[in-house]
Sequence to fold (292 residues):
Amino acid sequence: MTGANDIAAGANHGYLIKDSKVWSVGINNSGELGLSDTEDRNTWTATGMTGVTAITAGDYFGYLLKDGEVWSVGDDTFGVLGLPGTGNQDTWAATGMTGVTDIAASQYHGYFIKDSEVWAVGLNGNGQLGLGDTDRRSNWVATGNTGVTDIEAGLYSGYLVKEGEVFTAGQNNYGQLGLGDDNDRLSWTSTGVIGVLDIAAGTNHGYAISGGKVMATGAGGNGRLGTGYTGSKNTWTDTGLSGATYVTSGTSHGYAIASGISFATGYNDFGQLGQGDTNSRLSWTEVAIPAQ
Fold:
């Protein structure tokens, strides 16, 4: 499949955008592929959705942006599709939320940015929606946080960039919010990390690029923080990788680009770090890209 310009992965399904059209593949128990049925696919299949500019995947659902409007599909557990009273959807459904510029999805909650304000929906047991309570929402709700330029969703937590500073909300059992403790936050809380270029959220850890340096916080198992050891951190910690322009996270591993070079760290039992072996890495390690 060539010519793709956006791609997203859920628990066991995926999406890509090619020529503004959505294609999907994988498990389809809840209709998450958007193909009007619940049959799995093992080849990329056109969904019929066109005019799409962005797409993201939760565990068993998806969101996309079409002409600035959020559309959703798949498993509606905890109301995560933002379509009250409709249940699971096996075709992409318009939510009526327009003027949206960014979307993010996790296991059972989601966010979008509209007019620089964060809106949220879904599961909220740890306050991950940032609304000051733990009540789930099946309607998209404005959080009151404005001036936001980026948003990412962890398993039961969230990260946003507001005027260049990282704010976090939700579960904090591993210190993944980077606030110096392990107490959950029900509202978006300032971390003091400023000058941020990019953020990324893993299951129970997060990354931020501040002043060109990759900072990390949260669970450190398998070296996913890239700090040189496996201990967790509850404050944002300089990992030693500088000149960074991009960072992203898997469940227990991470990738970054620094000075035009790709790096990886963390869990590697399936060779996902691209190091030619299955040994986890505790520090950011250059990825050797084979010559074609």
